[in-house]
Amino acid sequence: MSDILVHTEAGVCTLTFNRPDKKNSITTAMYGALADALQAAEADAAVRCVVFQGVETVFTAGNDIGDFLNNPPATLDSPVFRFLRGIAQFPKPVIAAVCGPAVGIGTTLLFHCDLVYAGDNAAFSMPFVNLGLCPEAASSVLVPQMLGYHRAAEALLLGEPFMAEAALEVGLVNRVLPPTETAGYAQSVARKLAAKPISSLIETKRLMKKGQSQQVMATMAEEGQSFGRMLSEPAAREAFTAFMERRKPDFSQL
Ligand code: COA
Q1: Closest C-alpha residue for ligand 1 atom 30
Q2: What is the average pLDDT across 196-213?
Q3: C-beta 137 within 6 A of ligand 1
Q4: For ligand 1, is residue 101 a contact (CB within 6 Å)?
Q5: β-strand partners of 21
Q6: What's the mean pLDDT in 165-169?
Q7: Which of 39, 158, 170, 194 is the most buried (most CB within 10 A)?
Q8: Any atom of ligand 1 within 6 Å of the Cβ of 219
Q9: Closest approach atom of ligand 1 to CA 128
Q10: Largest Cα–Cα separation, the chain
Q11: Which residue, judged by its Cα, is nearest atom 39 of ligand 1?
Q12: What is the position in ligand 1's atom list of the atom closest to the CA of 244?
């Protein structure tokens, strides 16, 4: 079965991370599938809303570390950046249902969703510094904006996880639910949105986002340049190799 499931029903296109044995970590091929699915959902008049979900125990562990080590994205046209631009500019409503760990892009993609529902087991983290990297998905702008600078520094410089209730408090999450109810609740909200006039949804979202969209896209491109360069530098290679070897990274010389 595919690592990304795409299912459209009653106006709702649901994209499911489906690689639970690897904690739904995302490979280049999966980014390509996600970017293609978003493009198709945008063009398909039958799709009025998109839902991202994982499973009840994990949303996604972020980038597949082995894949990133072996096939770092070479250009800004690579699938990961195509996906990020796709979600940042997606004109119809996007909902996320998040249970368990949401690491790296698993958290940063949420800043581009319109509504986020979390299981009470959700754990959000952006450990880019711990991986010798820098923020992506315009998170260097969007995280301080939503969390305030000091909490953003905690999340981005220390890279420590924060739980669903903290995410609710800062407004990253709309509602916290039992993990068994999270996906179902997100679907019920998606269907509610799908019953509304799509032209009004699109125009309302455009108006809410327009003040910032240029800055978001420019930041994303700048972060992408740095992130791409840092992937092949010694700190990231040490962090990734340490993860594969199940040991603590040693940054003492870096
Ligand atoms: N890339 C590649 N493989 C990953 C992965 C990732 N980001 N995250 C987990 N996996 C794999 C593990 O290597 C392991 O594979 P194996 O069974 O073949 O050994 C399997 O998924 C289970 O992972 P494990 O770490 O044993 O699960 P856990 O429940 O103890 O911890 C996480 C879950 C998500 C907290 C932990 O896996 C983690 O921190 N992953 C890395 C997250 C990360 O740094 N992502 C990059 C962000 S840019």
Answers
A1: 23
A2: 98
A3: no
A4: yes
A5: none
A6: 98
A7: 194
A8: no
A9: 48
A10: 58
A11: 61
A12: 13
Which residue's CA lies nearest to atom 6 of ligand 1? Answer: 64
What is the pTM for the complete model shown? 0.98
The residues near 168 (Cβ < 8 Å, ≥ 6 apart) are: 118, 174, 175, 176
In this structure, the chain runs to a length of: 254
Distance, C-alpha 134 to centroid of its chain? 15
Mean pLDDT of the chain: 97
Q: Is the pLDDT of residue 76 over 90?
A: no
Ligand 1 centroid–CA 107 distance in Å is 15
249 lines ligand 1 (CB under 6 A): no
What's the pLDDT score for residue 1?
81
pLDDT of residue 69: 86
Q: Give the helix/strand (H/E) hosting 202.
A: helix 198-231
E runs forming strands in 74-185: 94-98, 101-103, 115-119, 123-125, 162-163, 175-177
pLDDT at 39 over 90: yes
107 lines ligand 1 (CB under 6 A): no
Per-residue model confidence as pLDDT tens digits over 135-146: 999 999 999 999
- State the pLDDT at residue 80: 96
* Amino acid present at 251: F
| CA-nearest residue, atom 40 of ligand 1 | 61
Task: State which ligand 1 atom lies nearest to the alpha carbon of 58.
Answer: 34
What pLDDT is recorded for position 52? 99
Q: Which domains does the chain have, with CATH numbers?
A: 4-177 (3.90.226.10)
Is residue 74's pLDDT more than 90? no
Tell me the one-letter amino acid at 124: F
157 pLDDT more than 90: yes
